[in-house]
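Note to self: keep these together.
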Amino acid sequence: MPRKKDQRENKPIEDYETHIQREFKITKSNMLVQRARFTLTAHEQKILAFCFSKIKPTDTELKPVVVSFTEYCKLCGLDPNSGGNSKNIKASIKNLRDKSFWLTEEDGTENLIGWLSRARLRNREGKIELQLDPELTKHLIALYGNFTQLSFLSELTMRSGYSIRLYELLKSYTNIGYLQITPEELRRLLACEQYVNFKDLRNRVLDIATKEINSYATDITITWQPIRKGKGGKVIRIDFTIYKRDSKASRRAQINDHLILDNGV
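Structure:
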């Protein structure tokens, strides 16, 4: 009987390595996940997720992240030959370098923190160099408790920035299995205060994010229901239920195979 071929033999080595890198995990402090308030596009969040995924458990400081433009595009399911992608990646990096966010500490102190302290496009080498802001160190390095581990692959496949943000928030509550939150607080954390009407919040944020999380997240699925004040009254709370997903290799591979080109820039 002929030997059964390993599926990896049908793929170029670099494709297999890309799949492996997509399986990397991201670890953040719960404070960063649960208390940060920021407005970032899906692609800006994916660039950060890429940087976070490169942090090793043994690291003692935030090191510069250097990657070739082609490798980054392959990892994110983007066409490296597209001039539009190159332009959009450059714009997203600039936005991350320019943007900052508020993080509320346990004592109520609010810290204004940047995402990137340095960004360089080494054009002759075809490489991107990014340095995370040192203020993020305590939220990403040497975390021994009160942290959340996230799936890099899951975030790569999501198209909506709200989906990525809600996925991270709910993943941080997996151990208790639920989150009860007011619409006002959810709008604040997801930076979608423009959707004052709950119908708009549901249609433009919650329904889309729920569908993407349940379709693409490798580690959780979610349900939610609005809690109203009286029959047919105003929504005063949103109750999320979070279920752990069996992270089988087949499920991860299925998502990997559906990571299509130009998915999120």
